[in-house]
Amino acid sequence: MILVTGASGTVGKAVLNEVARSGAKHKAMYRSADEAVKAPTGTQTVITDFAKKETLAATLRDVDSVYLVCSPIPDLVQLESNMIEACLAAGVKHIVLNSALGAGDYAKSFPSWHRKVEDKLKSTGLPFTILRPNSFHQNVVTYFAPSIRAQGVFYSSMGNAKTSYLDVRDIAAVAAKALAGGEHSGKTYELNGPEPLTYAALAEKISKHAGRPVQYADIPAEARRNAMLDQGMPAWQVDALLDLQDYYTSGNGGTVDQLLPTLLGRQPITMDRFLAEFAGEFRSQAASA
Ligand SMILES: NC(=O)c1ccc[n+]([C@@H]2O[C@H](COP(=O)([O-])OP(=O)(O)OC[C@H]3O[C@@H](n4cnc5c(N)ncnc54)[C@H](OP(=O)(O)O)[C@@H]3O)[C@@H](O)[C@H]2O)c1
After folding, report:
1. 9 and 109 share a domain?
2. Which of 60, 99, 208, 228 is geometrically suited to a Cys-Cys bond with 114, CB 3.0 to 4.6 A?
3. Ligand 1 centroid distance, CA of 12 (Å)
4. Rg of the chain over all Cα atoms, to the nearest angstrom
5. Which of 29, 66, 67, 70 best tests ligand 1's pocket when mutated (most atoms within 8 Å of CB)?
6. What's the pTM?
7. CA of 50, closest atom in ligand 1
């Protein structure tokens, strides 16, 4: 039996869909009943929280493999460590951990938190597979679509840095294979997408697919910091995002290699395919009405 945690989240939901489609025996973990009702038909659900340590043994009953993911929050290290300890106690045979690009060599921001969990997992001796993905295609909708819809512009401080975006559905396909263990056991996979894109090149692609002019506005990092704080984002998150941006602007986000296509056994989903599918997200409400 496979347990998919974070089943309401961006990547966890995609992993659940992939596992459910595969026909493997599985259950999905949620924190709220409102989200659990959205599980695919036939998926057994369990509602709990990594913080509620006393509930985790029941959640893990009959479970052999766990896909472990948590939101990028400061408590991530403690929360995922709780689950790893519960897995060890419950005799789970394999954990697929959703980490992040940079966990191998960047001692700041989200990657440093993920690295602590990776080290914790390895210290237990539990069989594992670690996935360290680059930025998700889905971030483009989450973070850039609102100002694109309103103003035809998205803002950041990435300069000419490149990012090899990948689709969470491709991460999910790799996770589903890794949950079976086998050749993937003991492996750490750094997952990059098929094309290194500057934000200016990304703006051109969004324009093409949305059928309207879209521009990327490069702003100083301090202006970005102030804009995020003005929007009400907590200081820890603003610091983590800007530190992560330093990692990408230092040239670490634009790698393209053959690992993802090899693991998938097909070509990965491109940014063009993603944008064609979600083009409506970038049109103004008036234009799409
Ligand atoms: N975005 C990227 O480009 C990117 C790239 C590389 C790596 N990552 C990493 O990928 C991970 C997942 O990202 P995402 O965008 O899928 O995050 P997400 O949408 O926030 O999903 C996180 C999931 O974790 C669950 N969760 C949060 N706190 C929990 C708790 N205390 N107990 C149990 N479950 C809990 C959430 O449940 P609720 O819905 O109830 O909150 C949600 O289902 C993050 O750790 C991030 O650092 C992201």
Report:
1. yes
2. 99
3. 7
4. 19
5. 70
6. 0.97
7. 32
